[in-house]
Amino acid sequence: MQIGVIGLGRMGGNIVRRLTRAGHSCVVYDANPAPGAALAKEGATAAGSVAALVEALPAPKTVWVMLPAGKITEDTINQLAGLMTSGDVIIDGGNTMFKDDVRRARELAPKGIKYLDVGTSGGVWGLQRGYCLMIGGDTDVVKRLDPIFSALAPGVGSIERTKEREGEKQLDPRAEQGYLHAGPVGAGHFVKMIHNGIEYGMMQAFAEGFDIMRHRASEKLPADERYDLNLADVAEVWRRGSVVTSWLLDLTASALAKNEQLEGFSGHVEDSGEGRWTIEAAIEEAVPADVLAASLFVRFRSRQQHTFAEKVLSAMRLGFGGHVEAPKK
Question: Residue 89, by phi and psi: left (phi above 0), alpha (psi -120 to 50) or beta?
Fold first, then answer.
């Protein structure tokens, strides 16, 4: 299939590479011409503007927007709306607030332009591992673009299949391939939002646990109850058959093995919005979310004072998403 991709940063560029390697044809654009030129050497077609990208695509046109949530994505989708026609599809693969998806789809409907929201997880490792995709939108459009989604998804891989999924249950077979049609417009980004909220809580649990272990050698404790633990070794042994084995633990083990004191990190931890939106959704639904709320507030606190736990958080964020700490002020 042929698809346009706007936004060629850490994830957008690798999405293009994965699609190209799967045999799809990509027309690409970024405000910075350098990544487009690099991708052109790998088989993509670089366009000099959004209008040129749309013009280069055959009808019905499909354009994947992979930009930071907010004004830049909003402006780009508005620009595409003026260039595309009935039957064309706009995909937002960033971390947009799901309510904005619902509004956009409603605004595009009179023009006949279809809109999909695709929550995309995989970070800087997506090219090799594939991307976990959570899709919202009309069933017929999702079905038509299935070759794109299946090429980006990781597939079953080496993960053991869930035996309970077998039989005649009404379960989506795409889920075990790593992509899912979650529901109508907005559902994809809603599921991804909750995914990221859970991620905050999981990361915070690891961070606090390692911080507690690090302080077990404190002179304030009885001498016979002090333990000078090698945190890199603890993280490594937990990777081998323990209940808490996970990719986040893998990233933590890697960071600690490089520098057990995490001296390259200040502990200043940003939040990208989804954690806040998750808590807002919990409030709307009157659902208790103690852990998720606390993990979000810790990130706020980290910008004022730092602990070793926040350094662990920073190390994990750099590992899975290439998120660099904000410069010191």
Answer: beta
Write the DSSP symbol of residue 2: E
In what helix (H) or strand (E) does residue 89 lie, and over which residues does it extend? Answer: strand 89-92
Going residue by residue through the chain, which has 329 residues, state the pLDDT in tens, using 9 for 90 and above.
999 999 999 899 999 999 999 999 999 999 999 999 999 999 999 999 999 999 999 999 999 999 999 999 999 999 999 999 999 999 999 999 999 999 999 999 999 999 999 999 998 889 999 999 999 999 999 999 999 999 999 999 888 889 888 876 789 999 999 999 999 999 999 999 999 999 999 999 999 999 999 999 999 999 999 999 999 999 999 999 999 999 999 999 999 999 999 999 999 998 888 999 999 999 999 999 999 999 999 999 888 777 898 899 999 999 998 888 987 66
| Residues contacting residue 255 through CB under 8 Å, at least 6 positions apart | 262, 312, 315, 316, 318, 319
Distance between CA atoms of residues 113 and 81, nearest Å: 8
Report the alpha-carbon distance of residue 179 to residue 245 in Å, rounded: 22
Q: Lay out the sheet containing 114-121: strands in order across.
A: 45-46, 25-29, 2-6, 62-65, 89-92, 114-121, 132-136, 179-183
Nearest by Cα to 210 from 299, 284, 307: 307
Instruction: Tell me how many degrees the CA angle 201-319-323 measures, rounded to the nearest 5.
Output: 80
* Residues annotated as catalytic (active site), given as ranges: 192, 199
* Both tokens assigned to 106: 């409603």
Chain centre distance of CA 145: 20
Q: How far is CA 310 from the centre of its chain?
A: 20
Place of tokens 């869930």: 162
Distance, in Å, from the CA atom of 148 to the CA atom of 65, rounded to the nearest integer, reads 14
